[in-house]
């Protein structure tokens, strides 16, 4: 049994932490809004990230972006202030490589080690402990953290050194966004030519060009379903992080740049809280 701090109890984090509790670990939780902590049974509640992290073997953080992560880790009441030497910090947030590099250095100053471990999957996979974790960090730290991560992720890929987990998550989400935006355009084109979106999607699903993720997203779009699961705003954030990382290595990313404009336009139009399938709204009449 490990002593674990889990900070951030949004839609994903609240489901993931339940698997760690069910496995018998001593879990202390914290969330920016206290209402979320009331829904978690079997864990103790801390008043600050520092209090939660104090004495923990592993500190998980699962929040929305770099800014939110920084606010949890840094400051007098931040988790870094409570991180003990020898502990493992596990950053599950889909963050930028730049922030992960800064966080890794700060964790090292505390005599601890960092594993970046964002996940692929949505609410059903989180509930069923069938997420995919993309992990970055030194071998020893990753090997230590993997049994904990496997409580909520049935597949763990070690992408390489610190920051590589988040980098691979950005790559994965850029690929997903391109598929969704492309499918929205294809379905809109079909509808404009007199083929219903449902019929077009049925045919696309039977073609070798279709992916499992694309089929799932395409069916949601054909049905006009933009109920938030993973929001357009979060996708825009991930595409921005990917674009910055690509620029640092002088890697041309014209498709990602174009898809970022699609998602940023949704955010600018006040539709960022809708699902990642929201590009279909341009084509539905």
For the structure shown, list the relevant keywords:
285 residues; alpha/beta; Rossmann fold; N-(1-d-carboxylethyl)-l-norvaline Dehydrogenase, domain 2; six-stranded parallel β-sheet; 14% strand; elongated; NAD binding; 6PGDH_NADP-bd
Question: If you had to describe this structure to a student in words, what would you say it looks like?
Answer:
- This protein is of the alpha/beta class.
- It has two domains: 3-161, Rossmann fold, CATH 3.40.50; 167-282, Orthogonal Bundle (N-(1-d-carboxylethyl)-l-norvaline Dehydrogenase, domain 2).
- It is built from 13 helices and nine strands.
- Strands 3-2-1-4-5-6 form a six-stranded parallel sheet, with helices on both faces. Strands 7-8-9 form a three-stranded mixed sheet.
- Strand 2, helix 2 and strand 3 (44-45) form a beta-alpha-beta unit.
- Helix 9 (164-192) crosses helix 11 (212-222) and helix 12 (232-248) packs antiparallel against helix 13.
- The longest helix has 29 residues, at 164-192.
- The mean pLDDT is 97.
- One of its GO terms (molecular function) is NADP binding.
The CATH homology group name of the largest domain: NAD(P)-binding Rossmann-like Domain
Q: Based on CA inertia axes, which overall geometry fits?
A: elongated
- In spatial order, strands of the major sheet run 3-2-1-4-5-6
Nearest-angstrom radius of gyration?
20 Å
CATH class of the largest domain: Alpha Beta
Number of helices: 13
Report low-confidence residues grouped into runs of 5 or more: none
Strand content: 5-15%
Spell out the helices and strands N to C: EHEHEHEHHEHEEHEHEHHHHH
The biggest sheet amounts to: 6 strands, parallel
Output the structural class.
Answer: alpha/beta
Keywords: NAD, Oxidoreductase
Domain 6-phosphogluconate dehydrogenase NADP-binding: 3-160
Organism: Hartmannibacter diazotrophicus
Domain 3-hydroxyisobutyrate dehydrogenase-like NAD-binding: 163-280
